[in-house]
Each structure stands twice: as structure tokens, then as C-alpha cells.
Amino acid sequence: MSEPTLAARQLEKTYGEDATLVHAVRHVDFEVEPGEVVLIMGPSGSGKTTLLSMLGAMLRPTSGEVLVNGVDIAAVPEARLPKLRATTFGFVFQDFNLLGALTALENVELALNLAGTSGRTARERAEELLARLGLAGRLTFRPDQLSGGEKQRVAIARALANQPPVILADEPTANLDSKIGHEIARLLRAIATEEQRAVVMVSHDSRLKEVADRVVWLEDGVFRDLDDMTTDPVCGMSVHSEGAPHLQAEEGILYFCSRACRDEYAAASVSGRPPTASDVNIPNEA
Amino acid sequence: MVPVARRMLFTDRRRAVLGVVGVAIALVMVLALDGIFAGTTRQVSRYIDTSPADVFVSQEGVRTIHMAISAIPARVVDRVSKVRGVAWAEPVLFASDALRAAAGRRASYVIGYQPGGRGGPQTLVEGRPPETGEMVIDDSVARALDINVGDEVEVLGRSWRVSGLTTGMTSIVNTSVYVTFDDLAQTLGSRDVASYILIGTGADPQSVADRVAVIPGVEAQTRPRFSAEERTVVKEMSTDLLSLMSLAALLVGLAVIGLVLYATIISRLRDIGVMKAIGLGRLGLTRFVLAQALWTIGTALPLAVAVTFGIGAVVAALAPDIDLVVESASLLRAGAGAVLVGAIGVISPLIKVWRVDPATVFRRAS
Questions:
Q1: What is the ipTM of this complex?
Q2: pLDDT digits over B157-183, tens only?
Q3: Residue B13 belongs to what H/E stretch?
């Protein structure tokens, strides 16, 4: 087993104190190998974004370490963090987060500028990256002239500009239709494999499981064992069995995301037909 | 390098135009005030500047016409005439009062000169030089107060008939009128006294002035020196007021620059968060905001200069008495003032961008 590109050791983040103390992330241990794609899933409010922010050197952990190629970035002085982010991480966002005032080419070129590459070198590298991602004909287009898939490919080109060892993707397929979302997922997979980059994706989109080497479930700031995961038969949400509302049915113990789903299921069972997600108007992925 | 500051500033064209125009208006106020002031001070010394005299002699200790009273014994004229290098010497009398006509009045320098001499109006656009009981006035005042040649006007408590019109001797502050030396002396009740002595030289004016200055009780200055002294006294009288008005204009500019940059920053907080997330540090952010300020000022300043020149042309056509002169020193002052207010104006936006949390990139756009 090779040395992990990215590792979190006993990573913890709390907000507030005393009565208002909130544990957003609790003692998380986590490793990503070069070329590995890890998908972090979990319900809203589970701490995914906080974890991603800490992994990406945008948020200081309360305690613990974030190691990139063995270097603890949580201990790096504040003034050095921007440059570290520019050279160490490539970010891909749900909302693409391209700068609307710049063209596709300039968006990528800017990332290179921020890492210290400028002039013709930066321009050629940006052109090469965009061409590689099939955007050679869109170099001078502004984000509002691009489709969702094109925007996300520009964002990926920007993320790859400085050849970072780690790509952090926050809901990379959420604003895309299924076909384009699938393409983006495969692209991230290919980048990990071909360029040996560590890719961490945070998403609700279970379709991303097919490109991930590993899926971890984050709930209440803690990684849960996926073997203990089950699906709420009412709303379809993934639920960790520990402490979840449940009831004994003919087919065994059923776990629910909430008491409301359990009660709904129980009431429907009495009437003869257990409800499903299509009956109760609860979104599959809250 | 990608010109991200300029792109972000000018992407929202309406906001950019409003900002640039706002700053330009503030700078136009500064430049126009400076220009009117420069034009006025230039006009104030017009009598001296257009005089054929090379040296002006005044009472010892008196170095100006404006805000001064000079009295030189008439006999000094003869003595001055005999100084080596003096080609001619002529006395003039000077008083100040309001010229009154049916349509209004105007502050005036009253200059008494010898008929046919060099101390009178240098050009006559209408009529003839004054004789006893007559005066020549400026055509601009004649138009403004609806005075024609042959009309009666009142100055120094008596009536004068307008014999002719000269031109270019009226400023926003006052005008010059010309009467005969003896007439003015009689009106003032002064005998054997001149206010100033005008000297034409056949040699170096400064050498002549130095030689004349040896005569007891007189001050002798070359025309450029006398003119500069005249402008200085006017400037000194007006500097505080002008400084206050310029400061007010610059404060308007400061508010505009600050608001424009702040509004731009506020509307681009997410973009700034993205830039911070992908590696823009505090120094880069500072450069980013300063570049936006410089672009705003750099675009507004030439616009302001062009508009000020345009205003100058319009003013010259509509109000010839007002001379608006844009001097290079004024441009430098306005530019420096704009950079200064720009530097102050960026403080608040700068603090705002420094505080932007890069992790905002993970929040959903609304």
C-alpha cells in the first residue's frame, strides 16, 4: 500500500462553547491513496462541508491533523494557506463557481497566475487543458454562454491547472442532468486513475458510487460503517441503523430516517399497503 | 496576468459608468474651481501684463495694485526719467470704486493716465480715449450693464460720460476703467502725487529696476515680478476658500470611490471567495482592490479633464468675464488628490475582502 496522498488524523471541528457547543466533525480518521476516488455521503448537516473545508485548508480544525503527502497543512501559518491551496488542491463545486467576468480561458489562466505561472506559459497550459476537456471551441466564452456540463468541465480544467495532488469536489454533479453528470463523474474517475491524483467527492448523488473506489458515510460528524446502513422504506433515504427509529415488520427490522416515516409506514401497514416514496411526497435525497 | 480587477469592475457596465462618472464629476469640480481661480488671478493682473511698461515703480513697501495704496511725489517722475536705461516714465493714478449704471454696478479699478500716454487702454474697440469728464470702460461690462458709448455712469461719487470701449479688462472679480490723470487727481483731491510710475526701458529691465530702487521712498519691480506679486496677493486672499471648496469636491470623490468599490465588492463577494479559495492571498486581494480604484480614477481623470476643457469653452462663449484656465499644476493636484481619496476609499472595501471566508464557496449560490 502506498503512502496516502491525503490523510485526516483525529480531525475535529467544534463551534460555540458550553451550552452552545456543536460538534460538526468528531475525531475523523481518513485516508485517500494516489489515484483513489473516495465518495463521502451523508445527510444534510452531517458535517460533509465542514470536513471538506478542513481538508481543503479553508477552515482550521479544532484539533487533529490534515496531512497532504505527509505534511500537516492544519499547522501551516495563515499567510501561507492561499499559495498552498493554489498548488495542493483543485476544487470542483456544485455551482461551478467560475468567475462570470472572465472567459473560460481566463478562469483557468487565473488559477495558474495565482500559483505563480503567468504569461504565455499560463495561457498555453490553460488552452491545452481546456482542449483536452473538449472545450477548444469555447475558450473565449464567458460562463453565462456555456452549458452546465461545459461550465463544470471548465471548473475541472481550473482544478487541474496547477497539477494538484488532491481534487476536492463538492456535489460535482448536482446541477447537471443525469447524462452530463455521468460524464463528469467518469471524467473525475479518469483524472484520478490516469494522473494518480487523490479525488474526494462529497455528494448526495448515489450514482457517483459507480466511479468511487470507496464510499464513506458521514453522519453527525462521524464516519459510519456502511455495513450498518439501510434504506428508509418510506422516503428512500440511506439510514444508519444505530439509534434510528425502527419497527419489526414481517420481513424483519425496518429502519427509518425519522419517527414521521416510521409512523407513516405503521399507519399504512394497518390499512393494508405500506407507503413508498412515491406515495408520501418526500424527496429521495433530502 | 489575467486582468481580473478590471474585468470585474467593468463587467457591470452600468455600475462602472456610474462610478467613473461620479468620480469624474468630483474631479471636474476640483479642476473647474482651480481653473476659474487660475483664470481669475491671471485676469486680475491683466492691466500689468498688457502694459508696455517694463518696470513699475510704487511707494516703498508697496508691491501690488490690489489691496494697496501707493503714493509717490510727482517730482520723483522726473528723477526716475533721468535714471540710466529709462526710455520713458509716466505716472498713473489709481483708485478703486464701483462703476454704477442703471442696470447695476461692478467693482472697478479706476486708472488715471496721461492723455496719449502709455498707461491707458491698449486697445479701443469703439469710441475714443477719454477727455475731461469722460472714461473708457470694458466692452464686457458695457454689455453686462447695458452701457453704450455716450452714456453716463457714476464712479467715485461723480458722473462720467463713456467715451469709448476697451476689451479684455474685466474679470469675475472686477473691471478696469480709464480716465485722464488730471481728472482723477481732481476727483480724488490729490495734488502732485502719482500712484505708480510706468517705465519703458532700452536696457535690461531688472538692471533699470535696481537703479530706480536706489531712489529713496520707492519700490521698483519688473513687469513679470509686479504681475506675480499681484497674482500672489489675490491667491493668498482666496486660498482658504478655494481649499475648502476643493476639499469638499474631493470628499464627494472619496464618497463616490468608496461607494463604487464597496458596491462592486459586495456584488462580487462570492467571486472573491472563489479567488481566495483557489489561492488569492491578502497581498493579491489588496492589489485587486487598489487596481479597481486606480482603474476608476484613471478612467475618471481624463474624462474630468476633457469635461473641464469643454466647460471652459462653453464658459468662454457664454461668459467672457470668466476665464477658466486648466494648468498642469492643477491637473497634478487633482490627480494626486484623486489618488489620495482613492487610497482612503479602498480601506473599507479592503477590510471587507480580507474578511471574506473562502469556505463560502461551498455554500449554495442563492
A1: 0.82
A2: 999 999 999 998 888 778 999 999 999
A3: helix B13-44
